[in-house]
Specification:
Elements lengths: L1 E4 L6 E4 L2 H4 L13 H17 L16 E6 L4 H18 L2 E5 L9 E7 L2 H10 L3 E6 L21 H4 L5 E5 L13 H4 L2 H14 L15 H6 L5 E3 L18 H10 L10 H8 L1 H33 L5 H7 L8 E2 L10 E2 L4 H10 L2 H31 L5 H8 L3 H6 L3 E3 L6 E3 L3 H43 L17 H35 L4 H29 L6 E2 L2 E2 L19 H35 L13 H6 L8 H18 L7 H23 L13 H24 L2 H10 L11 H5 E5 L24 E5 L15 H31 L5 H34 L5 H5 L5 H8 L1
Antiparallel strand pairs: 1-2, 3-5, 3-8, 4-5, 6-7, 9-10, 11-12, 13-14, 15-16
Length: 914
């Protein structure tokens, strides 16, 4: 075995000598994907394929497992692509991989070739050593004391033990090819599971060149570039069977069937997830996502209970709502004339017209709102801290401890290796490695930052445009709907208002803008990240994650931030209204809905959150199913023997490198909705819980049935999403404090009750009259006055004043229309509430975070013991090996060990000696 370099000073793949590569060939069978091989196979291909099962995941000899499949078709540019494929596949064979080609005449469509790839033991062992893949060397001898009291209560939610624990627990150590007999290798064919095998093969495919040594083109390398330029149409590992039926081959694990049966079906929504089996089949990266999603859903259960209790409290105190009674009263609300809500096209109106929205607002705007906002600030801390503990336990159980260091040092991105032509000496490894000069790195970072700011500014500009639309059309709707027939409808008539029409149309426009921008800046974010040339896959994903979340954050939350913190706050007062772009624009700033801004925020949150989730689930499930149904329509009537396993998987959808990224993004955006604005809608966690119960099974179903098997990848955590969740958690305390203080009417009511209560009684009588200021109609400028015919029939010249929502002095006061002292008292109370709530919640958060260690004590002990055992057993192994070697050198005729242990493999002999 020796190394070759495809380019001067460049990267190397490990080349196997023919004797090393094919030591384990069965019955002397040799098969390579060359043109001559293809011609030899054509004569017997039909017979072979008729004999093959639909579920076959082996070469035609029935022994060598198919670890990866490449597909391609002949097209107009066939000669250049054929040359690339020929060189690429020859280089794969040099590395030691074994190839077998299925001719296009054997495929369902008659034009697709399939190249099946098998990695023999020598290749797997070599690259397992390179990638430091952890493998078992000793059974775990630490007793499991994880049984919980009252454990029988969870029996209905459990899955069978053979599904939950597909393999025994071992102590593991990074594989070392030179010490292969140190590890528990019973069968070389099954020692590395299929997920590890396809991960190793993909590592080779990503770094193998498709140019001849004499060409010297450094950029022609890797399966990703061959897929992008159309040389190959697909590259994927195989599922091990059909999802609805076990494989006929006894050597197949049928893990896909087990996953579908026990995980992907919706009627198992109340069952635990088989995380170990998910990890074994799909790899740690997908496994950790479903572990996080399941844990998040479990924690939502507690938030949903408390939120529902707060909502029920609002419902039960419905009759105690004194201010709504005053609004709906004919004697009070029916005699209060309110000032117009817009210029020219809006007339005067009576306060009792807002009766319905006032009652609705009380369901969410009550004392329980404050309690729930504080509770969610503490809940989010508990969620993050307990997830860290859960994640630490998974890191140990899945052999991911110290994985990040290996990821950084050993798995450079092929794009980084090819684009960084400069080399420097790594002080740690003392090897030459590619690097990006600091000047180039700074220039790329600056361009990236400027592009991100530009696109965020573009999103904000679009949101401002929607706001301007709302301001411009409100007056038009008010005029059009004044005599509309819909106002006479008995049930829905009172709800069809200019405000509703404006909000609905603006929301539709905003939705279209969000969808269009999503398509555009998704590509922009990928382009920017590619331009930065991240060093590792982990760094690439983290950079892309931050950019996409910034875009999505602004896109989805900006409308909620506008309603919560800007709408109705800067409107001025009659005679001196504030306009969006100045008086010349005639776009008067929008006032809150008559029921208050909190009910509008609640409505906005419900529409955006539920609409996004429902549409997302339908899209995730329906689109792949329809595409697969259409793509496989010709093959559905074929007999089993004519529709092979690789053709079935080829007709499925590709999961893609960013498939899991979008799943995380969807859930983190939802997490923002239920934390940032939860004070306005206590039922948000309940809706999220229902959605996530469905989401887990939808994601499992589509991954198991509608997508090709993803390439297994390792990940020791949820990556940059953890920092994003922590940032949202901190921001949520601030936003909820401001929502309670400035968007809700909670603080003004409390100030009135305790400081301005009538006749010394602690009640809310007279609050509505106290919260409305008076303006003289004769002082309203002509530009603000309603046009002729816009006023209602009951309005006449005897009405000389109108009311508006503010705390200002009445006309005739020495400082007319200036803020009253009550306004400043309320403002001081709001600021004091924000400071107190933030300090209380943050204090509890930091105390809880300090009290709960990130790593459980038993996990910490197990990690230390495993490290100790690795050192001890390796030392004893080396000593024993040296003794055996010296014994053989001293007496070549000694056959003691084979006589004592005639039937035991070498690793068991050494284990007995140790």
């Amino acid at each position: 075995m020796h190394r070759i370099t495809g380019k001067s000073g460049g990267d190397s793949l490990i080349e196997m000598s023919p004797t090393e590569s094919f030591n384990d060939d069965v019955n002397g069978y040799h098969q390579h994907a060359s043109s001559s091989t293809g011609s030899l196979q054509q004569g017997q291909s039909a017979i072979d394929k008729q004999q093959q099962s639909k579920d076959s995941v082996f070469f035609r000899d029935g022994v060598r497992r198919i670890d990866f499949v490449l597909s391609y078709v002949d097209d107009k540019d066939g000669e250049r692509k054929q040359e690339r494929r020929k060189v690429y596949e020859a280089n794969l064979e040099k590395v030691g991989l074994e190839l077998e080609t299925e001719h296009k005449s054997e495929s369902d469509d008659g034009k697709t070739y399939f190249v099946k790839i098998h990695a023999p033991w020598e290749v797997l062992a070599t690259y397992a050593d390179v990638l430091k893949i952890k493998v078992p060397f000793k059974a775990n001898d630490i007793p499991d004391n994880s049984d919980m009291p009252m454990n029988w209560l969870s029996t209905p939610f459990r899955l069978p033990a053979e599904i939950m624990h597909p393999e025994p627990d071992y102590f593991t150590a990074p594989f070392n090819k030179s010490k292969s007999d140190f590890f528990l290798i019973d069968n070389k064919d099954t020692f590395f599971p299929p997920s590890t095998r396809n991960r190793i093969v993909y590592y080779i495919l990503s770094r193998c060149s498709y140019f001849r040594d004499e060409c010297g083109d450094k950029d022609k390398k890797g399966i990703k570039r061959l897929l992008n330029n159309g040389t190959y149409t697909a590259a994927f590992p195989l599922h091990d069977c059909r999802y609805w039926k076990r494989s006929r081959d006894a050597n197949c694990e049928s893990e896909r069937y087990n996953l579908y049966k026990n995980w992907a079906r919706f009627f198992y929504f109340f069952k635990e997830q088989p995380l170990n089996l998910i990890r074994k089949y799909y790899g740690e990266k997908i496994g950790i996502y479903f572990a996080w999603l399941g844990f998040y859903t479990e924690m939502l259960f507690f938030a949903a209970i408390v939120g529902t209790i707060c909502f029920v409290h609002g419902f039960l105190t419905y009759d105690d709502n004194e201010w709504s009674k005053e609004i709906c009263s004919e004697e009070i609300g029916g005699n209060i004339v309110m000032c117009p809500l817009c210029d020219k096209k809006c007339g005067y109106w009576k306060l009792n017209s807002t009766c319905n929205s006032s009652w609705q607002s009380h369901l969410f705007d009550n004392v329980g709102t404050v309690f729930f906002a504080i509770f969610m600030g503490i809940w989010v801390t508990l969620f993050l801290e307990f997830w860290k503990r859960r994640q630490a336990r998974l890191e140990y159980e899945w052999d991911l401890v110290d994985f990040e260091e290996e990821q950084q040092q050993l798995q450079l991105r092929p794009e980084y290796e090819t684009k960084c032509t400069n080399r420097k000496l790594n002080r740690i490894t003392q090897e030459m490695e590619p690097y990006l000069p600091i000047t180039s790195k700074c220039a790329r970072m600056c361009l990236s930052g400027a592009t991100v700011l530009f696109w965020i500014s573009l999103i904000i500009a679009c949101i401002i445009g929607v706001i301007a639309y709302r301001l411009a059309v409100y007056a038009a709707f008010a005029s059009i709907m004044k005599d509309s027939p819909t106002t006479n409808l008995q049930v829905v008539g009172p709800y069809i208002t200019p405000q509703l029409a404006t909000s609905v149309t603006a929301s539709c426009i905003n939705f279209v803008i969000i969808m269009v921008l999503n398509l555009m800046y998704e590509r922009v974010a990928v382009w920017i990240t590619d331009m930065e040339i991240p060093k590792t896959h982990l760094e690439y994903e983290n950079k892309l994650t931050v950019k996409m979340f910034l875009f999505q954050f602004v896109n989805y939350y900006s409308s909620c931030f506008y309603v919560a913190f800007f709408k109705g706050k800067f409107v001025g007062h009659p005679g001196n209204y504030t306009y969006m772009f100045g008086n010349w624009s005639k776009l008067r700033n929008e006032e809150c809905d008559p029921g208050g801004c909190l009910i509008e925020l609640t409505t906005q949150l419900v529409i955006v959150m539920t609409g996004k989730q429902v549409w997302g689930n339908i899209q995730e499930a329906l689109v792949p199913w329809l595409m697969n149904w259409w793509g496989s329509r010709k093959a559905r009537n074929h007999p089993e023997s004519l529709y092979s396993r690789w053709e079935q998987d080829h007709d499925l959808q590709g999961f893609g490198q960013l498939g899991l990224f979008y799943e995380y993004l969807e859930m983190v955006i939802q997490f923002g909705f239920i934390t940032l604005f939860v004070a306005s809608f206590p039922l948000a966690p309940l809706l999220a819980l229902i959605n996530n119960i469905i989401e887990v099974r939808v994601d499992a179903w589509k991954l198991t049935t509608q997508f090709r098997r993803p390439v297994a990848a390792k990940a020791h955590s949820i990556g940059a999403w953890e920092e994003i969740l922590s940032g949202i958690a901190v921001l949520s305390v601030v936003t909820n404090a401001f929502i309670v203080a400035f968007t809700s009417d909670m603080i003004p009511r409390l100030v009135y009750m305790y400081a301005y209560r009538p006749q010394g009684e602690m009640n809310m009588k007279g609050y509505i009259n106290n919260s409305l200021s008076v303006f003289n109609i004769s002082e309203i400028p002509l530009a603000n006055s309603p046009e002729e015919g816009e006023n209602p029939s009951w309005f006449n010249s005897s009405i000389t004043t109108c009311r508006y929502r503010d705390y200002r002095n009445p006309p005739g006061h020495e400082k007319p229309y200036s803020h009253t002292m009550q306004f400043w008292h309320i403002l001081a109370a709001k600021l004091a509430f924000i400071i107190i709530m933030e300090h209380v919640v943050f204090s509890v958060k930091f105390f809880v975070a300090w009290m709960i260690p990130d790593v459980p004590s038993d996990v910490r002990a197990r990690v230390k013991r495993e490290r100790y055992l690795v050192q001890e057993y390796l030392h004893d192994y080396e000593v024993e090996k040296l003794k055996v070697q010296l014994s053989h050198n001293g007496n070549n005729d000694c056959t003691c060990t084979p006589m004592i242990y005639p039937s035991l493999p070498q690793h068991e002999v050494l284990s007995e000696c140790l």
